[in-house]
Each structure stands twice: as structure tokens, then as C-alpha cells.
Amino acid sequence: MSLAREDLSVAPRAAARAVNRVKLHIIPSGPIETNAYLLCAPERGEAVLIDAPGGIWDQVVPLLEASGCRLRELWLTHGHWDHMQGAAEVVRHSGATVRAHPADRELITHPAQMSRFMRLQLELEPVSVDSWLAPGQALAALGETFAVRHVPGHCPGNVMFYSAALRAAFVGDALFRDGVGRWDLPGGNFDELAASIRTQIYTLPPATTVFPGHGETTTVEREATGNPYVSGT
Ligand SMILES: [Zn+2]
Ligand SMILES: [Zn+2]
């Protein structure tokens, strides 16, 4: 896997086997800089988008065109507005298959209820989910396998997508570099979040790159040994 942004020191950690097969674009987007992750496999002409902040489609189009990839899948790490605001537009243009966890069904299908938690009043368009995810499910895409792990505590339906071959975990808002997700929003719970992080993320190989919903990438090792909110022991 190669990283599109050159300022990321984690690139050399990517699995050698996958170099140049899956290209990752990190696209912070929307009103609160939510990270969208576009994974393209040019050899296969396929792409997967993880999360859909507002306006993401316009940023994705030139990347798809440059790599000759068609967007096949949209995976939502969770249902908060900043991760799904652009989802309906993505689906309208691409026809991508949308996957998310059923615990966030209400947020995704009736997003207007989130408007009281937004600094800006935005129109939120619901998106219809084609396939509800189950923990332990394996998703085949881009010639790789992604395991679905349930990491609630930030919200009930936060999942992560983990590829052992790519040594990459896309964790939504569960864990950040030197931080963790808010647990004070509806459905949030700190003890549950800490347990999710310890049992589902810190148990991954230490060299795994963690791609969070906001901010910089990190590694399992870095957070398990130094995260100020949830320690690895
Ligand atoms: Zn969130
Ligand atoms: Zn977020």
C-alpha cells in the first residue's frame, strides 16, 4: 500500500506485498475535517471509500479518474453526521454498495436528529444501507480481506475495518493519535470505549497502522504504550 500524502511517516510500514497494489488516499473533508479514506486497486479497476464527509464526492472523482478505478463500496465506520454527510451524493453518482453497523441504523436513516449536535446547521440527507455489518464478518475487496470488528463506546455502531495484509486498521472515532473518541454523545460510554480499544484494537499486531476518523495516523504500538486515555495494560 502506498500513501498519497507524502508527509506520513507511516508509509514504509505498509506491507511490502501490497505495495502498488492498493493505493490509499487520505482525504480530510467536511466542516470538521473528517478523514475519508479512498483505497484504489488500479490493477482491478476497483475502489473502496471509507466514510463520506460532506463534499467528498467532488474530491474523489479526480482520484478515481486518475487511477482508472470505479467506486464499488462505501463503508461507514459509524453513523455520525460528519462521516455520512456526503454518502447519499456518493451513492447517486457511483452506485456503490453501502455497508454500516445496524446499531447506528437510526442515525444513518434519520440523520436530522443529529443536527442539535452540530455547530453549523446543515441539511443532512439520509443514505440507504445495502448491507448491515456483523462483527467477525470478512469483507473481500481490492483483492484483500478486511475483517469487521465492533468497537462501540463512542457510539453504538462504530466498527473498524482491519486488513492484516495491508497492516491497516480504519477505526472511525474510537481511537485517535494520543486520544480517544468522545463518549458524551448519545449512546457513548467510556468504559465500553476503553474495553473496545483494549480488546479489539490493542490486540492487533503492534506495527498495524491505525487510520482514525480525525487527525493523523498512528500505530497500535504507539497508542497501546502511550495513549493518555486508554493504556494497553
Ligand atoms: Zn463520531
Ligand atoms: Zn467524527
Give a quick summary of the entry.
The protein has 233 residues and is of the alpha/beta class.
Report on the structure:
- The protein is an alpha/beta fold.
- The protein has one domain (4-226): Metallo-beta-lactamase, Chain A (4-Layer Sandwich), CATH 3.60.15.10.
- It contains 6 helices and 15 strands.
- The protein has a 7-stranded mixed β-sheet, with helices on one face. Strands 8-9-10-11-14-15 form a 6-stranded mixed β-sheet.
- A hairpin with a 2-residue loop joins strand 12 (175-176) and strand 13 (179-180).
- It is globular and about 45 Å long.
- Residues 2-17 have low confidence and may be disordered.
Per-chain topology:
Elements: E1 2-3, E2 23-29, E3 34-41, E4 46-50, H1 56-67, E5 70-75, H2 81-84, H3 87-94, E6 97-100, H4 105-109, E7 131-132, E8 138-141, E9 144-150, E10 159-163, E11 168-172, E12 175-176, E13 179-180, H5 190-201, E14 209-212, E15 218-219, H6 220-226
Parallel strand pairs: 1-2, 4-5, 5-6, 6-7, 11-14
Antiparallel strand pairs: 2-3, 3-4, 8-9, 9-10, 10-11, 12-13, 14-15
This protein binds zinc ion (2 copies).
In whole angstroms, the N-to-C terminal distance is 31 Å
Principal-axis shape? globular
Question: Which strand order do you get reading across the main beta sheet?
Answer: 1-2-3-4-5-6-7
**Which fold name corresponds to the CATH topology?**
Metallo-beta-lactamase, Chain A
List the uncertain runs: 2-17
Q: What gyration radius follows from the Cα positions, in whole Å?
A: 16 Å
Overall pLDDT metric: 91
Query: How many runs of DSSP E, i.e. beta strands?
Result: 15
Assign the CATH class.
Answer: Alpha Beta
How does the helix and strand content classify structurally? alpha/beta
User: Could you state the CATH homologous superfamily?
Assistant: Ribonuclease Z/Hydroxyacylglutathione hydrolase-like
Q: What's the number of helices?
A: 6
The ordered string of helix (H) and strand (E) elements is EEEEHEHHEHEEEEEEEHEEH
Count of discrete structural domains:
1
Q: Please give the share of residues in helix.
A: 10-25%
